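Revision sheet: structure tokens.
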Amino acid sequence: MAIRRIPSLNWLRVFETAARAQSFARAAQLLHMSAPAVSQQIKALEAHLNTPLFERGPRSVSLTRAGAAFLPAVQQALRSVETTAASLFGTPSGEPLSVQASLMFACSWLAPRLGAFQARHPEVLLQIMTANQNDDFLRKAADLQIVFGTNPGRGGDEDLLFGEVLTPVALSALAEGIERPEDLLGQRLIEIATHRSGWLQVLEAAPDADLSRARFCFADTTQLALAMAAGGFGIALARAPATDAVVETYGLVPCLESLTVRGGQSYYLVYPARAALAPAARAFRAWLLEETADYR
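Predicted:
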């Protein structure tokens, strides 16, 4: 059965307050409303959902099973709105900046360095979002986007940040048993199917490796592949420098330090037009290019 959109967000606010207060009268005081108005809005929400949310008593109310299940989602949604509003509008002197980045880049490379940017530009109110697929970048608007691929081709301006170098990594106990490229074939090789460069390119760099013996298993993100390797499930591919921090955090080590392959994809900073960048976006771009200069 299709549920229509709730026409009034105030109904949710009244519901959440009444649930905490366990009293329509007390909720009315907290919301600076009349008790009949609170009761009316609760009834409207219940009618819209076609489900009773409260058991009414003579002097108090309690949540029904449906109301108790609904409450955490309502509270989370209201907190999210309040937090975002405080971030965007709570500091009049700050300039908001939204940056969307691929998950691996954001978690492993960008996150450890954001403190340095914020220390240099305390006036910027950062909002960091992540994405995995191209559609994720297209669905969410951001001032700046950091994408991974061969050619962003988004109709705006772009800056190359750096590429990737692939190296097999695993827990040290497993890695110590890998003495030759052929030894990799006796282990599970965790592959990312959506990446252009992967295990086939690495194994092709080892001329004596019989690829028909390879045992692959698949993950949809590099972060998951590295987590699986950290759990002892197999061998993943580190993609330096983007994965350096995560590889270190997980305690993974190279299986064969001499077996490295340069990948065919890179990270790019993309945005609609360089001339139209706001001051906060210009500052972030300048800082990011400075931080990645040595890789290029």
